[in-house]
Amino acid sequence: MYMPATTMAAAVPTTMVAAPIAASTFVAAAPTVAAPSFVAAPQTVVAAPAVVEAVAAPIGFPGFAVPAPMSLTAGLVPPEKIEAERLGYEKALAAQLDKQSNATTEEAKIKKAMLEQTAKTQLAQYQLQIEENFKMACLQVDQEAQTMINSLKEAAITQQTAREEMAAIAVADYNKKKALEEMSVKSYQLQKQWYDSEMKLTAEYQKVMKAGSKSVITPGAPQVPVAAGGIWYQ
Q1: Residue 94: which residues within 8 A CB-CB, separation 6 or more?
Q2: What would the pLDDT profile of 124-137 be if each residue is shown by its tens digit?
Q3: Which of 36, 16, 25, 10 is nearest to 112 (CA)?
Q4: Is-contact 226 232, C-beta < 8 A?
Q5: How far apart are CA 208 and CA 201, in angstroms?
Q6: What is the rounded distance in angstroms from the CA atom of residue 218 to the CA atom of residue 184?
Q7: pLDDT score at 231
Q8: Phi and psi of 231, rounded to 5°?
Q9: From its phi and psi, is residue 108 left (phi > 0), alpha (psi between -120 and 50) or beta?
Q10: How large a percentage of the chain has pLDDT more than 70?
Q11: DSSP letter string over 68-136?
Q12: In angstroms, rounded to a whole number, what is the distance separating the alpha carbons of residues 175 and 172?
């Protein structure tokens, strides 16, 4: 939430020059300007990815030893959601800026009206001096109001720029980790597919060997090589 470094509170002090017949002081006190506030950035939650179901290995054979890949994008916000949040944040920020700018302008009008009323009450006795001081006070109020509006605009631009930079960094980080995640998943699927095929062929081979041993008696059956993790065992 944005809080400006300084609060522009307008109080227009103006001292009247004493006339030959009387002495009077012209002071116009204006209300305090409320500190502006801006819209806070939204928060997002991303669902965790699904887990790949494991295939059970046949009895007597080693299980699949390759661990499942870790999700690199879990907890990260997708680019489309980041863009939508950025646009919504900019819209709310612009509306807040417009609202506070209008309030500052209206406050300046009220200050001018107060100065004008004070000038009219003293116009008969000090007409020339009051008119001069009134014009100077209005100029000062206008300058203070314009300074406040410029400060609000500068703060809004700073927050918008920072938000755009954060969004760009988040999108780049997401795309990088998404690519790494896809490569890891593909590697895992290839290794899993190869392992499942090897287990299936081994089970079929054992089934055929068992059926053949019932009809033919042999001195000794050769030991079948088994692949596990890319290494053949005998």
Answers
A1: 156
A2: 777 788 778 888 99
A3: 10
A4: yes
A5: 11
A6: 47
A7: 47
A8: -120, 135
A9: alpha
A10: 65
A11: PPPPSSTTPPPHHHHHHHHHHHHHHHHHHHHHHHHHHHHHHHHHHHHHHHHHHHTHHHHHHHHHHHHHH
A12: 5
